[in-house]
Amino acid sequence: MSHVDLMELVRDKIKGLKAYQVENLDEGTKLHANENPYPPSPELLKKTFQRLDELELNRYPDPDCRNLKQAIANTTGALPEQIIIGNGSDELIQYLMQVLCDEGDAIAFPDPTFAMYGITAQCLGLNPVSFPLNDNWDFEAQSALQVLAEHKARIVFISYPNNPTGNCFSAQEIQQVIEQFEGIVVLDEAYHDFAGKSFFNQMEKHNNLVILRSLSKIGLAGLRIGYGIFPVMLAEQVNKVRLPYNSNSVSQWVATELLNDFGYVQNQIHSIVAERNRLMGELSKLPAINVYPSNSNFILFQASEGGEKLFNVLKQNGTLLRNLNSHPRLKNCLRVTIGTRQENNQFLDQLRKVSS
User: Do 23 and 119 share a domain, yes or no?
Assistant: First the structure.
């Protein structure tokens, strides 16, 4: 019988990592994962069930996602050959690093931001470096560019709006980075639908710009659909490392239908934005809560006393938020996803009881 020391085979850099973990509840109100609280339209669900009878699940999906790419092209104005579909945009983040970086190369991002930039870089043997956000959760281009130059970074990832702070960074500062950085600038616009802001129109002028987006935040989180818009030359290189058949038949079909008839989802987005603004107003009335402005479908806030305790009390009462207390800049900070009006009212009622 074999008995191999498995940990001896694991790379040292992997041993030192912590897995990306998100708490979950079997029951209760889940306001922790930045999902759309509303289900897809009844019409889309009906058509999906009908389509399942016709799909040849014994056959591989379209490896080029042609119908979905065309739907995205019609929606965004990008060319189909610029678009790559990912199993979530996380997959595209990894592909970019694989294509553009050798082991030991640096990639950069602001701090705090989406944790997977750093985790993925470490998994690939790269050097993740960060530049700090100021007290308004923004950054200055000149100091960021100094960090990029010092470490000879190959890629800078900018979440726009930023997760977990919720805000859009200064467009002027981002523009300066795009124009002066001699590497690839990735604008991760996963929450673009809630902000209404984008740098897509800059792609014609700047060939170092990549836009990432996701359908997870607007209703299809369970199908894991992300996409990237690349300069055509770079898309050709990324396709060399893209895993074959990385997007399944069901995801491709449902996403295409959703994008081709977007009105129902657009109404949901309007409702979420309206609830976000209402929730920010209500949170700002609580003396023990410091709420930060948001352009996204979530809100970051800080409890003046005991964010960890507040998180646990809410969880015990069936409302799950994202606890960010482990980050040194986010002590006592929690992130709440915008839910339905009923879910938001329930959260506010519980919060007022705990904070009073």
Answer: no
Q: Are residues 233 and 335 in the same domain?
A: no
Which residue in the block uniquely carries the two structure tokens 């949170």? 283
Strand 322-323: give its sheet, edge to edge. Answer: 289-291, 298-303, 333-337, 322-323
Same domain, 85 and 178: yes
pLDDT (tens digit, 9 = 90+) per residue, 148-188? 999 999 999 999 999 999 999 999 999 999 999 999 999 99
CB 156 within 8 A of CB 101: no
Confidence of residue 10 (pLDDT cuts 50, 70, 90): confident
Residue 45 lies in a domain: no
Last residue of a domain, one of 232, 260, 288: 260
Q: Tell whether 108 and 215 lie within a shared domain.
A: yes
Is the overall model pTM greater than 0.85, yes or no? yes
Asked whether the predicted pLDDT for residue 255 surpasses 80, the reply is yes
171 lies in a domain?
yes
Q: Are residues 30 and 136 in the same domain?
A: no
> Where do runs of H (alpha helix) occur along the chain?
6-9, 12-15, 42-52, 66-76, 89-100, 116-123, 141-150, 171-180, 192-195, 232-241, 249-260, 263-283, 307-316, 341-355
Range of the domain at 35: 6-40+264-355
| Spatial distance between the Cα atoms of 103 and 115, rounded to a whole number of angstroms | 20
Nearest C-alpha neighbor of 83 from the set 63, 95, 98, 66: 66
Q: What is the pLDDT of residues 329-353, one digit of tens each?
A: 999 999 999 999 999 999 999 999 8
And the tokens for 184?
């690839």
Task: Using DSSP bridges, classify how beta strands 29-30 and 319-320 pair: parallel, antiparallel or unpaired.
Answer: parallel
- Residues 145 and 270 placed together within one structural domain of the fold: no
CA-wise closest residue to 34 among 163, 154, 136, 129: 163
Rounded to an integer, what distance in angstroms lies between the CA atom of residue 132 and that of residue 232?
32
CATH number of the domain that 145 lies in?
3.40.640.10
